[in-house]
Write the structure tokens for this entry.
Amino acid sequence: MSTASEELLKSFEHLPLSEKREVASEIIRRTFIRVAQLDDVQLSALYAEFANEDRRLAEEGIEDYVRGLDREDA
């Protein structure tokens, strides 16, 4: 994640809940507007990127789960 993204998230955390909802809604709205403008090639690349990230996160989750089971067994 870029430094700008990290700073954005830090600022976001300091917002009141009502403003967090407004900002999150606006980000989602803008994201879907952008996705609607993508062509099939761009969407395929985006889906592949998300699939890779999802796979990586799932593998990390499984590894954490296995480590937890190993600790329980020890």
